[in-house]
Specification:
Elements lengths: L1 H22 L10 E7 L8 H16 L4 E7 L9 E6 L11 E7 L3 H5 L3 E4 L13 E5 H7 L10 E4 L8 E7 L17 E5 L8 E8 L7 H8 L1
Parallel strand pairs: 4-9, 6-8
Antiparallel strand pairs: 1-10, 2-10, 3-4, 3-7, 5-8, 6-9, 7-8
Length: about 230
Amino acid sequence: EVALAFMVLAGAALLLRSFAALVRVDPGFDASQSLVVRLSLPGASYDTFAKRSQFFDELTRRLEATSAVTGAAVSVSLPFFADQVAAIVPEGQVVEPADRPSANFYAVSASYFGTMGIPVLRGRGITLDDTLASRRVVVISESLARTLFPGAADPLGRRVAISQGPSEDMSEIVGVVGDVAQYSLDASQALLNAQMYEPALQHPYFPVMYLVVRGESDPLALLPAVRTVLR
């Protein structure tokens, strides 16, 4: 019994040590004081790209105008919640389909990086001017930039082909952001933490999006404002 008790204590100590190490890991985003809502638009009412685009655009604008809200954004994916994966190939490279590099694909609104606390390291993030009427743009994570352009000084301005989107137009890289832990906080899974972000206004075909709302205190206090704006 004494030997068994020591085994249990040793196991508990190792578990606590592993947990403490995970708590210290930076996931690349700030989840504090944030509320996440999964939104699924009814197809009968929002049956066109224009209607879906207008809904999500107006939703984030009106929420950000609410005094209790410090940031609001929508995305088709979220770390640890859901994922979309797309292939990405730099312009001028010929790569067989099976060998094309891939990364997590996000269609996000203009306030996404600020609301999620993801740092923009180079260039810019997504803006309200990035619409279907403008040129197609993409923001990539730091690790994806290293994968696509090893040894290159600056990926900004380069163009890539992405296997996700309303058209086959090339996307211009306009920014580089910090890496985000998509699936795990384990450092050995870092190769899975490569992301590309394109404007939600350029991808209005998604009827299901995640809404992220940030406030200054308890995120549950934001629920009345979110319900009011949604209605």
